[in-house]
Amino acid sequence: MKNLRLKSARAAMDLSQEDLAKLCNVSRQTISAVEKGDYNPTINLCISICKALLYNLQNHSYSLY
Fold first, then answer.
1. Which of 13, 24, 25, 34 would you call most buried, defined as having the most Cβ atoms within 10 angstroms of its Cβ?
2. pTM of the model as a whole
3. Architecture of domain 4-55
């Protein structure tokens, strides 16, 4: 299943996949795979993505993933 919330949040911050990948210390291909639903990110990667997107997990009842 595609991860449209991640793609939407990234686009809302005007970040490319490459930009987000650099902020999270992963490859662009990893971000692409997460967005396409081909890769299930580790909890550490989820936290890195949330921090990069300024997404506060404690203030939201739904998951970014």
1. 34
2. 0.81
3. Orthogonal Bundle (1.10)
